[in-house]
Write a structure and sequence with these properties.
Elements (H helix, E strand, L loop, with lengths): L3 E10 L5 E4 L1 H11 L4 E6 L5 E7 L3 H14 L14 H10 L2 E7 L2 E2 L5 E7 L5 E10 L1
Antiparallel strand pairs: 1-8, 2-7, 3-5, 3-8, 4-7, 5-6
Length: 138
Amino acid sequence: MGSSIRTKIFEISTSSHTDFVNVTPLVKTFVMDSGIKSGLCVIYVPHTTAAVFINEGADPDVVKDIAYKLNSLIQWEDPNYKHIEGNSAAHIKSAIIGNSRVIPVSDGKLLLGTWEAIFFAEFDGPRRRKLIVTLIGE
């Protein structure tokens, strides 16, 4: 059996200015339906004011704490920002968190830790966004 590449683009709707959407079920279903048993899952966000991260998904207060601390460290308004669109804070948060993640796949499953979940991070919403998931494997 040879290598295979499968890509799916998901549309994610965010409901607030800063919003974290648990996309783990979407990605897990795509991996399961793909037939790929072993390989890599690459998750990519093609937006400069959004990101993707992995963290605890069991306790919703964890992502609330992450949002709280990001918002307190990176203020939305700052007289020293130069970006004319007025969303410099969203760009900074996105740059810090990052726009991609790679997760190993084994036996047709994502090798996430027991409490780990995949979150789409919105920093300039609400909006409709894209999440690109590419599977590389066999």
